[in-house]
Amino acid sequence: MIKTRLLCACAFSVITVCAASPAMAQSGPSSDPQDTGSTPDIVITGSIIKGTPEDAALPVNVIGADELQKQGSPSAVELLKALPTSSAVLGDSNQFDSRSQGAEGIATANLRGLSPQRTLVLLNNRRLVTSGNGVPAVDINLIPSAAIGRIEVLKDGAAATYGSDAIAGVVNFITRTDQEGFRAAATYKFVKDTDGDVDASLSYGHVGNGFRMLAAIGFAKRGELLARDRNFAVQPYANNPQGGWSGGGNPATFLGLSGSGLPTTPLTADSSCGSLGGYVGANGRCYTQYSGFDALAELEKRFTAFVDVGVDLTDTTKFEVTALYGRSTVPHYLTSPSYILTQAPSIASLGGKNPTPFVSGFYVPATNPGFIAYNAANPGFFPASTTGAVFPLLLFRPYMAGGNPSTLDDPDETGSARGMRKSESIRFTAELTGKLAPKIDWNLSATYHEYYRYIDGYDSFGDRIQLALRGFGGPNCNVAANTPGQNGCLWLNPFGNAVTHGAINGTTNPQGNAALANSRELTDWFFVKSSTAVDSQLFVLDANVSGSTGIKLPGGDIQFGVGAQYRYNWFDTLYGANNNLAVNPCRDTPITGNTNPAACSPTSGVNPSPATGALAFLGTNSNSFLKGGVKAVFAELQLPVFDAFNVQAAIRYEDYGGSVGSTVDPQVRARWQVTDWLAVRGGYGTTFRGPTLANLSGNSVTALQLIGSAFKPVDIFGNPALKPEKSENYSGGLLLKFGGFNASVDYFKYRLTDVIVSDPLAAMVATLFPSSGGNACSSALAARFTFANGLCGSQSSVANNIANISRVKTFLQNGATQTNEGIDFSVKYRSSQFLGSALRFGIGADATRTLHNRISDIYVAGVKVQSAYDGVGLLNYQSTLYPVPKWKGQAYLDLGTGPVDARLTVNYTDGLHDQRYDTRSGPFAPDPSLRNPDGTIPATPISLLTGADLNSFVTADFNLQIKLPKNFVLTGTVFNIFDAQPPFAREDYNYEPFVGNPFGRMFKIGLSTKF
Fold first, then answer.
1. pLDDT digit string (tens) for 220-267?
2. How far is it, in rounded angstroms, from Cα 757 to Cα 742?
3. Which of 10, 165, 205, 295 could form a disulfide with 214 if both were Cys (CB 3.0 to 4.6 A apart)?
């Protein structure tokens, strides 16, 4: 579908160019700015009025092409991650944070760390559709970098100008309009333990005779970096039990059962646990590591193509059309070999009777070949009364240490489970501009943008696993023949003796037997593809008139702008058959064909089980087709009260219709040039963000979030009752300028109300089971949780009660008030003849000091789960707030002479404190699994308190440019000169991906030319 639209758009572009040919032939003298020396009026970010001066009251930072080259031509995500005004940028793999899951290949902007959906991203002052990911934000990876001339960052809310989403500010990517001839560029970046990053682009531009065009194509490849290739990312259990370790792995933990269903053994770690690199905890459970199967950076391939054609229809009327196509793929996203089983098997998969009535889990009869071999290798372990074993829910998955049989022979996956991520973007704009009068301009434009996002992965049909444990597995099994292991039936061996060696660590298992190994045929039968396709579309109509009112003030004419906008969105979500409730509503559907959601096979007793789908871990959902429109009118005035005092005033009315309603947002900014070298600027305004179509839907998405020591599925539901969140924004600053010296200090404050947030999971868990003991199982909050044994608070300890949680339901809500305030600093000095020599010299620094990032109390089901706190300088792991450091800055030193320019850049991100330490919760709680250093069992559970404070992350980069003959430019860059590692954090990869990166020292070489 998207390819068809692309062909139509390209055809339209060609027709437009051809149709414009007569107009070009009829045009008068050349309007080429390079020929006449004139500079056309431009619209700067934050204003709709043409000709607004760039030194107006707007706090806009402009990052030009020259500046980007001096930084080593960073990618969009590298640039924004280093920007002091930006925090918690999405772009590096981070599959264990719900705010970034499924987003591999996507990059976002996040000004002030207020969340990506509160930063509006534009291309040439026009909106882009969001990516359809869990966090609704624009994918900046598919912006055509080969065509970008500059990036403008408005560090203030701008809803009065642009409407929804511009709460924290605006990032506006501006394409070149003055290119003549061809430009070509290619770079290669060496990253240790990868095959490197590649970037190549080609563009052509022409300006003259009433015609302007730019065409650009670009290709980029990012190399895959495996977690096991960074020592800090894969560490021993005793260093960080949360560092990619799970108590629900394989080898697993189980207990023997008698014919009556009563346990015959205690809960015991598989005897192969230690041999395969696992950790046998003091609590008798086996912990195995999954992070070694993952990638810290996925292999990504991106292609973009952009065309911009402008034609002078008359002396005053111009027509412009653009087309953009982008595609990115992550061909083999890597993750754990399989997932924990969180749904108990149905009675249908157990042959009509539950043999484990006292323990919820997966049953293994004593006739299973793995059981027989385990019993023989461990004589006396199972009493004679034992008729089988049960692998309790949440303590077992079919594959881990030995890898997944379906991918063990694949050199690209090496036993990992795999998936794919694909994004396609097509955007088309048409714009007609002209003049109503010599000093009054009009503009009509239309934008259509479609973003298609496809992700897939694999998960287990739980009932098929249970059948296979009983010897009735495989695609050719004749279950009706009732002969386990025969008539095409296969056994699933859940014991460690199915694994002869560790897939990642290479350890040898003395009890492993290749004859007992599980087959690919069996695996492919129960480990099935789960897929989601999201199609987001945006159509925008804009009309505005701007210019001089003819009314004069002492400082000049009052300038005005008025306009209207109509936006329409479509948001369609389609699920594959295996994770679609319409196809597989029940856990028994894959084995019985039952598709009646009201008659799902029970797991115990006779009452039907809930229709939660057949997959044992990942969510199963229903297709949705959403659409809706927004109407807006807006106005702006530029008031030159005096030559030295200018005021900008704007207002916007936006109507969402229905229960969401409407909003009116004014904004006032002013600038006073006190002296030639000192100016003062400030502003006040209100901004807003309307709920997205997905936010308003009653459907859910499933995220994987850490609960206790294991990742569990969390269903996040929309809320049709949501209303827009609002913000009051305040700013004020000083600007200094002495010759080549420029400096500014700006204060900013955002006060958001009715903030749209998801119920905070970690706070919900901590409220239900506080570390001080007791529980809130009698409150309405408990209804949001599903427990492995069906009972809340039935376990003997807080840790075990949390471990008993198998699934959680959360909702979006207008749940809080948030205040973010701080100070931006900027200082720069440049000289083209430093100290009277031919030396070019520059020095500068930009920094942001965030003073506060407060959030108010949050309630769930009428229960206060999170008290108000100030999150600045805190890790805010899996919480409502993103990690925002107190200080973030970037400093540089430039030197140049003749054809050579060099830059040294230092990037600084302040350290963070993990507030879970303060309550001794999460990773800092007493851990019943930890042994003493000598391996003995402690008298009381140990609390591992390391990692409470994350060190600051400091890197230095060096870039060298040499201008060669024939318009060639050679560049060389060393990133992270001192090979700094990201600071240690008690997280899955032992660092915080929103703050640091795992790449270490990198070398980049590039060559560009114009011809």
1. 999 999 999 999 999 999 999 999 999 999 999 999 999 999 999 999
2. 40
3. 205
